[in-house]
Structures are given as structure tokens and as C-alpha cells.
Amino acid sequence: MNMTAFFPRLSLLALACVAVSASAAEPIVVKIGHVAALSGPAAHLGRDNENGVRMAIEELNAKGVQIGGRTAKFELLAEDDGGDPKQGTAAAQKLVDSKVNGVVGHLNSGTAIPAARIYSEAGIPQIAPSVTNPRYTRQGFKTTFRMVADDAQLGGTLGRYAVQTLKAKTVAVIDDRTAYGQGVATEFEKAAKAAGATIVKREFTNDKATDFTGILTGIKAAKPDVIFYGGMDAVGGPMLRQMKQLGINSKFMGGDGVCTAELPKLASGQVPDNQVICAIAGGVEGAQKPVMDKFKADFKKKFGAEVQIYSPYTYDATKVMAEAMVKAGSADPAKYLPVLAKISYPGVTGTIAFDEKGDIKNGALTLYTFKGGKREELAVVR
């Protein structure tokens, strides 16, 4: 249809302006990918992480965030990697093919590390909310960011705590042979030895094991003051139950993988008060506590479930990614990536800023124990 025939006084330039205005008024679709284990033994942690992203996206859409003068409509593209590296890289490629604007994930070090190369080659920013293996941010990729302290800090802190605070002289170490489990166990062992402890046993299992009788019987004979397990709660819980059955009273220590609200249930209630000492990469203190408490209350009201561990970090990762887009005036990864690398954002989990490797600056750790079947905070350390 020739519009000038109907509106002879309307110039072609005016028509062009009308077209541009109409285009500018259209929402811009921003696709946020999220990958975690939504099947398998860590599925409860994967759902927790995904819900954090979902909560952030719904808030961003309700707010009507503007990017480059256009209202942004955020969409969640969620993938399940099952905690498996091959499945993780397949999920990453699927998100790249879907032209996501950014990725929050993965849950596990073992899946996030190989996936990082795929995102890097596509130029898509990846913010990992719960990955602690140091290698993740040491591959030289400019697209890779981490929300929490790494295993060198977490494992090292727990190793020193075992000797200096728990007064452990002998230690046994078990890991599940995953990138995460081996990494945190190795850092714990190095720090405990450096602090003066003797490693009496170093054993391994796998992340799907259920019977630890052989390993624990050998460890029982060595009578360690502390048993450290590098792995997830789905294995740590049954291990604790079998320790109780075998009459092993050693302190049980672990990283964030075992430091979940589900641990007592997975141990069939066999978690004596103060026996377990664990640490989560992250934590808030002081004026930040009421902010986190509100998030947890809102989360529970929305999803009918307690925060497991890292949903506040996936929530913040999504929000900080959106903030970088707003500041850059674009959701194009190439345009907002430099802004993301230099951002300082006040999140639920604290101030979010990244160093030159993509690691979180001044990352915190929270030490916990369990009493009456409930996780109880001991201290926040940096």
C-alpha cells in the first residue's frame, strides 16, 4: 500500500520516523540460559539454583527494565546436565545454538569447566553461581565469571580450622573423584598437613556410591580425629549414617556440597550435634543479613521450599547480568561483556565485583555445624 497516496502531506521521512518509533516501542527479548543437574542425586540443588534465576527474571519483567530505550522481556532457557560433563557440553551447545544472551551456571565444577570453552568461543558471558574448582577461571576465557570463593580458599580454610580450632592431629580424606570433590579434598589435605596434621588415610569413592563399609572400616582402624569428605550430600548423608553404624565418632568435615539443609534427612537423622563441620562458599554478615533473610522468606513463600545453598547466588548472577546490559545499553554479549567485567553491584549476597580472572572479589565463606537436625552458622570468614 502506498501510504503517501492516502496522506500526501506525510513525507517519506516522517513515515520512516513512525516506523522507527514503532520498532523502538517493541520489547527486546533477552534469553538467559541456566544449566544445572535437574536429574540425578544433585537434582534438589539444581532446582534450587534454577528457582533463583526464575525469581530474578520474574522480578525483572515485573519492573519493566529498559535496555537501550526498549523494554526488556527476559526469558529463561533451562537445561539439565545431570552433573555429567558430556551432557553439560551438549546443554551448553544447545544454549549457544538458541542464541542466549548470557548463561547462569553450571552447578558443578565438572560440567562448568568444559562448558566454559563453548561459551567462550561463542562470546557468551557465563556466571557460575556455585563452581569452586580453581581451574574454572584459570582457562584464560574472558567470558567466565564466578560468584563464590574457590576451593583453594574453602578447602584451605577447613584444613586450617581442623587443626587450629578442632585440634585435630590425625585426618582421613575421602573424595568422590569428581572435579569438585577431588579439588576441595586436595586443598583441605594440603592445608591440614601444612598446619601440622598427619594424613592417615586417603581414599576415594564415586558420586553415585551407597556402600562405604570397606572404606570406613579401614579408616576406623586408623582412628582419625577428623574425616574429610570431598563430594555432595547425596553421598555424604549415607556415609554419615554408616559411620554411626560402625561406631565412628570422628568429626566429619566437608565443603559446600555436603553443607545443605538436606544432609540430616539423607543421613536418616544420624547426625549427632556438632559432629559435622562444613563450609559454604559465600555468606553475609552485618547489615547484609536482613537483606538475605528477606530473600529467604520471599523464596520460601514463592516456591514453598527452603533455600538449599546457592539460589541467592543464581538470583544475584541474573540481576548483575541484567544490570550490565542496562549500563551498556545493549543485550548483545559483545557490548555488555566489558561492562560486566568491571561492574560493582549491590546484591543480596553482598557487593558483586570480579577480578581480572573473573573471580569474585573478597569472597566470603560461612562455617556451619548441625544441631537438632538443623544447620547452624558458626562464623563468616574471608
TrEMBL record:
Q: Which UniProt keywords apply?
A: Amino-acid transport, Signal, Transport
> Which residue spans adopt a coiled-coil conformation according to this UniProt entry?
none
UniProt keyword Cell membrane, yes or no: no
Q: Output the GO biological process annotations, alphabetical, semicolon-separated.
A: amino acid transport
Classification via SUPFAM superfamilies: Periplasmic binding protein-like I (SSF53822)
Extract the signal peptide range.
1-24
Domain Leucine-binding protein positions: 30-373
- Claim: Transport is one of the keywords in the record: yes
* Lineage top rank: taxon: Bacteria
User: Which family would the database say this protein is a member of?
Assistant: Belongs to the leucine-binding protein family.
Return the protein name: Putative high-affinity branched-chain amino acid ABC transporter substrate binding protein
Q: Which organism is it from?
A: Rubrivivax gelatinosus (strain NBRC 100245 / IL144)
